[in-house]
Amino acid sequence: MSTSVTLLSQLLATTTVDSVVQQQKLILIDSRDPLPFVFHKLIKNNIYSAPVYDSIKGEYIGFLDLLDIVCFIVQISEDIPSCPDLFQLLEQVEKFDLQHATRVVGLSSKNMVPAVQTGEPLIKAIDIFVKHGAHRVPILEKGQIKSVLTQSSLIQWLHKNHTQIPLSLRKKTIKELNIGSKKVVTVPFDAKAIDAFRLMAKNKIHAVAVVDENGCILSNLSAKDIKVLVPDVLFTKLYKSTLEWVQMTRASQIKTTVPSFSTSLKGTLDEVIQKVAILRVHRLYIEDEHRFPIGVISLGDILPALTSRAEESK
């Protein structure tokens, strides 16, 4: 067994979960909080999700994710026509305003994610990410959530400590690792944004690729982009095109030759980790030589390669 593989195994076994968490104030949501308040709270703190606490039962009931909110918005939009009038928009807003946090918790995922304790090894949290497909893992101390370890924090840590990953593994290509084979869910640039969000809700995914008339990727529309609804109380932006949404959220034109969030089958694991860490994105689209999307790599696809290699050293 190579020394580098042993070092990786030791690193994952000796690093504690709480040492990897990016320092920030823990944001909690009360299960009775009105949904608009929760929505603004997530956006204001620039986070995608937060643990929800039932103050009556005295227990945590899960996480509320922006994708949960997307799923709910899709639900209340089902009976709205493609060109809603003012009354229909107001009705949609009212349905949104009258709900509380408990109404949307778990709409995008029914699985409760296991927690880890403060001081436990990082490999235990990674195991939860891999086996449960989790996007975040709560860290407990004396039965209370102290912090949350996210995939993004973990990728930032891996990038910082990339030299601890065996060079032979880092230099393997996406094709060799056989990652990113999931089918890309795409939406035409001229489709309405609400249709893109319907695709996210239907497929339980956090983003879709926006493509041009030839099927080539122009940009990415994700659940977090729902935040542009905040200043628009009438939800009218839901019925704009995906291209307009991307332009609103990126504040620039997106006609680029090669999107920054793409790679190829020749890209290495080292390059993937570096790109998602520096760009702070949650996925990279795999394109062929014609810029046609053939796969997508999420943060969760990177971890199995590391844990399988670490397991070899035991």
Tell me about this structure.
By secondary structure, this protein is an alpha/beta fold. It has one domain: CBS-domain (Roll), CATH 3.10.580.10. The chain is 40% helix and 18% strand. It is built from 14 helices and 12 strands. The strands form 4 sheets. Strands 1-2-3 form a 3-stranded mixed beta sheet. It has a 3-stranded mixed beta sheet with strand order 4-5-6. The protein has a 3-stranded mixed beta sheet with strand order 7-8-9, with helices on one face. Helix 1 packs across helix 14 and helix 7 packs across helix 14. The protein is flat. The N and C termini lie close together (9 Å).
Provide a count of the helices. 14
Give the SSE order as H and E letters.
HHEHEEHHHEHEEHHHEHEEHEHEEH
List unreliable stretches of 5+ residues. 252-258
Whole-number average pLDDT? 86
Q: How many domains in all?
A: 1
Main beta-sheet strand count, sense and barrel state: 3 strands, mixed
Radius of gyration over C-alpha positions, nearest whole angstrom: 20 Å
Tell me the overall shape.
flat
Write the layout of secondary structure elements.
Blueprint: H1 3-14, H2 17-20, E1 29-30, H3 35-44, E2 49-54, E3 59-65, H4 66-76, H5 86-97, H6 101-104, E4 116-117, H7 122-132, E5 136-141, E6 144-150, H8 151-160, H9 167-170, H10 174-177, E7 186-188, H11 193-203, E8 207-211, E9 217-222, H12 242-250, E10 262-263, H13 269-279, E11 283-287, E12 293-298, H14 299-312
Parallel strand pairs: 1-2, 4-5, 7-8, 10-11
Antiparallel strand pairs: 2-3, 5-6, 8-9, 11-12
